[in-house]
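Subject: complex prediction, re-run

Hi both,

The earlier run crashed halfway through, so I resubmitted it with identical inputs.
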Amino acid sequence: MLTVNNITKRFPGVLALDDVSLCIEAGKVTALIGENGAGKSTLMKILSGVYPEYEGTLVWKGQPVRFTNTKDAQQHGIAIIHQELNLIPHLSVAENIFLGREPLTRLGTVDKKAMFRETTALLQKLKLNVSANARIADLKVGQQQVVEIAKALLTNAELIIMDEPTSAITGSEVDVLFGIIEELIRENKAIVYVSHKLDELFRIADHYVVLRDGKSIESGSMQGVTQDVLIQKMVGRKIELLRKQTEDTPDEVPTLRVENLTLRNPRKPADSLLKSISFQVGKGEIVGIFGLMGAGRTELLECLFGLHHKNLTGTIHINSQEITVKCPADAIRAGMALVPEDRKKDGLVLGMDVRTNISLTLLKELENWGTIPIGRVTKLAKKYIQELSIKTPGDGQKAKNLSGGNQQKIVLAKWLATNPLLLLLDEPTRGIDIHAKSEIYKLIIELAAQGLGIVVVSSELPEILAVSDRVLVMSEGKMTANIKGCDATEDAILKAAIPKSIYEN
Amino acid sequence: MKTETQKLATPARPLEMNVRFDKAQLLRFQSLIALFLLCLALTMLSDKFLTVSNLWNVLRQISVNICISIGMTLVVLTAGIDLSVGSILALSGAITAGLLKNGIELPTQNLFIGFTILGAILVGILCGTFLGALNGISITRFKVPPFVATLAMLTVARGLTMLWTGGFPISSLGDTFLYLGAGWFLGIPVPVWITTVLVLIAIFITKKTRLGTYIYAIGGNESASRLSGINVKRVKIIVYSIAGALAAIGGLLVTARLDSAQPNAGISYELDSIAAVVIGGTSLSGGRGSIIGTVQGAIIIGVLNNGLVLLDVSPFWQQVVKGLVILLAVIIDKANSSDE
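This time it finished cleanly. Structure:
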């Protein structure tokens, strides 16, 4: 039905897809699997018309096509259901389904009756027992997902791409979803199913395609493969170990000790986002924390940094002193530093110059008689521009004009300036080129050698393995493994990271 | 090879630099240039414009707007807005006038408290600061959007002004107080002195102090600022308090110039103030702008008002022209910032 021939997609400094070829058949569910960063989302975006520019060809029902935008792809019959649902909460189901293509009456007004009629028919077909006039906000997430599918069906989609469709729904809702998928397959539609949850794929998928490092590694029938084989295909590559593991030094006081950290979900009080997490980080130790999307990695760092104080229980010790962290300022005072996941949103003031960004955490110390001496700020900035080899025309350059790697170094600089004891890094190399990546790894290792405790949270396994002395694995808010760096293998880490709860419900 | 390429590059580079330099300079002085052209036009159109007495008159008139607009600039830099300044101006002016004239009588305790000028002024300013702080608290603690919080304060403070004055002006406040609004010092009107000092302090705060850097940082990226350990709530409360205090000082200037506290003083002053801030190039989404820009914006509005009066333009047309000028200023500013 759809053939992808030798597609290559380049971004500045990154080869996102490298000569990818695959084939999607009508009436089958094709599972697209791969680690984070393997190129799945880039491929989906090309199939759905988000990226019109690439090398290679798409052949759709025997015709070569090139979608110029998402509407174009929709008109050809390809629909995508994103992980983040695209519904408007305060509009009704019918209004959402018909958004942007409302039927009109002869008078030019919106034909609500026709909308209601067609929506009701669609919902019946999908066995969703809600009124077409119900507000989206009143529906459960699983029901909202079905509404998204209804939206896709309304466009007469023949190929439906589902991105992590079960990431937000529970066991029985998953069963309903799978029922719908089977129904769609009987109607000879094609489904591309993207998920980390391998056990789901064994229930629903007919074929699999494994992407790794932007290449299509292998494809075949789900029958006759096992989870272990698939995991091996997803990761199977030798990692260059940057770091020789240090010997255990158990008698030393740990820089960070966390006990029974539990984070209540403010929206669902019965549910916890973090479940009784305990771990420690020694002086000069690099601890890697791995987990798939939604495992609670970022939340854990945010908790340490005082962002969820109200819903948090458990204790945090720094150098065996118990501390209470109610806000980031408390965390900084205790000697912590956080390099956040999204540097543009949380790390930098993009419109400000490099020197102010670097000095932002330290203005109080730089202050002299109530003023900020520009000389001191410049000196501090120049020191870090040189030490971290930040490439910028000058310390007065606005942060937004620098490349991703150099922006990340500015974020690091502003935290190193506070002389922290513990450095928390959330996805420290996301979206930066390979050269800057290796520079940052080297820096992390140097800092640990100087005695800093370091936590590296990452969804990229090679990154975790490259720098960690010890690897902690999280899954669904729980700590599922604690592996010494020298014993850590990709298989072991991934096994601990893949959620099991889908059958527990 | 290296020296060769360098030689080739040298003649081209200064030229390119020069062009860019000129454009940047032009942009920086766009409002000054606009002001100059405006003055030039008015001088040619009216022989009354370029006279010493008229110019002092203009400056005296705009000193109140500048005073309010300093606070407004700080608020807008944090990506907020303050609609309550006009009402706070009226209330503070009325309180100072009332205390000065009547003092406080507490008949039950058989007590009378009289106020010196300084005392009355201090209470007036404190009252403005307090209401500003309340704005800040409802915005930070209770997460009310700035537009709504200060809109509520606009109504509350106006109502309090009516309660305090009973709806009547409080007049005849004495020569010493009058001097603050209408007097001259070293050949320059006193309100112009006061405003100049406030402008200098505000420039110092925004350019040289921690608070100033924090204000720009919060407006530029609130989330990154919070994660950097900045107490965002405290900074915002301080900024709204300053805005309240400056509105109160504006109230003193208005009251002193008229020798009377009008219950209807300051109505729609917030709009002139926002206009000055916007014409001065401060971005309503925060993080970008300057005090000196706002001063220029206020002067442009003041000169425009004055010119339109001198040219005998009907008050209705004056409003139309003013509105178009604001629109034009923002369109030019947007075009420039998207160039970056």
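Chain A has a mean pLDDT of 85.

- K.
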